[in-house]
Amino acid sequence: MSADPRSRAQRRRDTEHRLGHDIDVWVASASADGAPYLVPLSFDWDGEALLIATPTDSPTGRNLAATRSVRLGLGHTRDATMIEGEVEVLEIDALPQERGDRFAAQTGFDPRAGHAVPLVPRHPAPRPGLARGERAARPRADARRPLAGLTPG
Amino acid sequence: MSADPRSRAQRRRDTEHRLGHDIDVWVASASADGAPYLVPLSFDWDGEALLIATPTDSPTGRNLAATRSVRLGLGHTRDATMIEGEVEVLEIDALPQERGDRFAAQTGFDPRAGHAVPLVPRHPAPRPGLARGERAARPRADARRPLAGLTPG
After folding, report:
1. Is the per-residue pLDDT at A46 higher than 50?
2. Cα dist from B1 to B7, B22, B72, B123, B136, whole Å
3. How close are the terminal C-alpha atoms of chain A, in Å?
4. In this predicted structure, what is the pLDDT of residue A152?
5. Staple B87 to which of A6, A136, B11, B68, CB 3.0 to 4.6 Å?
């Protein structure tokens, strides 16, 4: 991890590269009453939405359907890109065939073969604000800013 | 990632090794009303509790103090160990000097130099049930079990 934060343009390029090339993402969700959940899942990014698939009755499936809110971690702890998103739940039958084919090719498994329900965390196209991992690991003590690269709020 | 799930004994050994040797962990928390948060942070494991440090007013700090519940991801997406824990909040002044010294040596930063507040996710000593990452990434469609290696509930 470089000591110098990346420029906004570089963060945007890095985020776009990860969205296009990475296969797995850390998916954090929460129940409506505040129980956190975290699991790594495969994803596909089509340039506008990030598609994941999980059973309706899994903790992640239940949480995302209930709160429609997700926080994603791409990459590794020392070079992470955090993405917050709103979730749109797609029933398996509503998944366009082309989107399903693309997901299967990208992730190596076909969500349509089982009882999976794809969930689409929606967020704007990659923008500088999406990449916030620069100060995340090995936080330094500094009373004037958070010790970790946390987003406000 | 092996196609064969690790034995319980092997998972326990792997978890213990990671707790003793890894520096960073993915920390998932949630607000009381179900907004998920995720950030990578450095940690120290003393054999009984996993210590992290974050400002009182950071999203993670606020969430953990409010819900006392955390879910941690150790390792990488293809070889992950998930840990659920209860959180004990320690004010910075209550951190024993030896514990603070150990944390600083392990993580490379001293939480006592700033306004950090250590938070201790407590959970039992590593046991087989803590390591649940085997089927997490590249889930396979199988109607009889979750597509991802999720814990029940």
Report:
1. yes
2. 14, 19, 20, 26, 10
3. 25
4. 25
5. B68
pLDDT score recorded for residue B121: 57
- Residue with tokens 């906004």, as numbered in its chain: A8
Q: B16: which residues sit within 8 A by CB, 6+ positions away?
A: B126
Q: Do A147 and B54 touch (CB under 8 A)?
A: yes
Summarised one tens digit per residue, pLDDT across range A105-151 is: 988 888 777 655 666 655 544 433 333 333 333 333 322 222 222 22
Q: Is A105 on the interface with B (CB under 8 A)?
A: no
How far is residue A70's CA from residue A56's CA, in Å, rounded to a whole number? Answer: 15
Q: Report how far Cα B127 is from the mean position of its chain's Cα atoms.
A: 14
- How many other CB atoms sit within 10 Å of the CB of residue B72? 24
Structure tokens at B84: 């659920």
Q: Residue A51 is encoded by which pair of tokens?
A: 């598609």
Contact criterion met (CB < 8 Å) for B31 and A29: no
* DSSP 8-class letter at A15: H
Beta-carbon neighbour count of residue A20 at 10 Å? 13
User: Looking up tokens 């990578």, which residue turns up?
Assistant: B40
A68 interaction partners in chain B (CB closer than 8 Å): none
Of A109-118, B82-91, B121-130, highest mean pLDDT: B82-91
The rounded distance, in Å, linking the Cα atoms of A4 and A131 is 14
What DSSP character marks residue A49? B
CA distances for A120 relative to A19, A51, A52, B125, angstroms? 14, 5, 6, 37
- Could you tell me how far CA A104 lies from the centroid of its own chain? 18
pTM of the predicted model as reported, rounded to 2 decimal places: 0.77
Burial (0-12, 13-18, 19+ Cβ within 10 Å), A135: middle
